[in-house]
UniProtKB/TrEMBL annotation:
Lineage of origin: Bacteria, Pseudomonadati, Pseudomonadota, Betaproteobacteria, Burkholderiales
Protein name: N-acetylglucosamine-6-phosphate deacetylase
Alphabetized PANTHER family for the sequence: N-ACETYLGLUCOSAMINE-6-PHOSPHATE DEACETYLASE
Domain Amidohydrolase-related: 46-355
Pfam families: Amidohydro_1 (PF01979)
Organism (species): Pelomonas lactea
Top-rank taxon, per record: Bacteria
Amino acid sequence: MTRLEGDIVTPQGVIAGHLDLANGRIQAVHGTPIAAERAGERGRPVLLPGFIDIHVHGGGGRDTMEGGDAIDAIARRHVRHGTTGLLATTMTAPLADIESALRALGPVCRERGAQSARVLGVHLEGPYISPGRLGAQPAYAIPATLDEVLRLNALAPIKVLTLAPEMEGHLALIGPLRDAGIRVQIGHSNGSYDDGVAALNAGASGFTHLFNAMTGLHHREPGMVGAALAHGQHAELIPDLLHVHPGAIRAALRCIPHLFCVTDSTAAAGMPDGEYRLGEHMVQKCLGGVRLPDGTLAGSALTMDQALRNLVHKLDLRLPDAVRRVATAAADYLGLADRGRLAVGAWADVVVMDAGLALRRVFVEGEEIDVVADA
């Protein structure tokens, strides 16, 4: 048994005490409630649930679309920044390339590698998006068919699919995809406010990187952003402070009850400035951002530990709420009652930080990760 002593952070508050870990699970949570502002006092470790990131294109110099052992390297890099569970995210590409990537992802989704985050499944971001809202996606957008999506799902479990609902036939697909266990997110869309509301009514569950690659909010044309703010229960957002202005993040936090954070990370995450692959594109990491040659933001170099620090230190969220946004809300969205929380019976996915939220230790399913070797 492993005992971790410190200040235990949950979405409900902070407990000064200890966790007992054994057989990959949390066996006991003991302690006394304290004010959230006291977490880490007098050098006590701060214990948080492992982070859940449902939008990961790459990291450590590798890209999901490479196939082969790329996802192993990606999962090993992100776990060293506190991400204990992730969705490997594809790019818009020819179907043959997507199939190749999913074949490589299938075995990794079934079995976690040593010293790695758990790959919880796939986020299929494209090719079923609007040709007019590609963002940094290559120009291979096509309409979806149910048979095609289910065939891809048989190669690796698709947990989330990004779709532009205004494209012909897409609205009718949302219900059958939901019934197949695939969460449909609205994104990379030129659709209107009404298109967004119709998609939500049809069973769409959230929005892909809210504000980015979708029609914006105007007081006479509320757009897809307006549909999200007025009606959305769930949405992902990139809190690197480049993709979305802090004021817009604050507005979304007030409007969308279960808003959660993602990195939209590329191969540049955890790497020095330089040139990296994003699908078929080459992108440049510089000054904390990742861009195409024309200056378009192309994913990010964000890691989830930095996302947490941004929420607390730049956006003034209380630590329990910030933890909900980087861990619990995404786990709940995926239907994972035993991840993203520090509770008896949950997987022993634990991040240990200091009072300044610098990462010190990580456990995935009870295995301690060597965070120094690949920090």
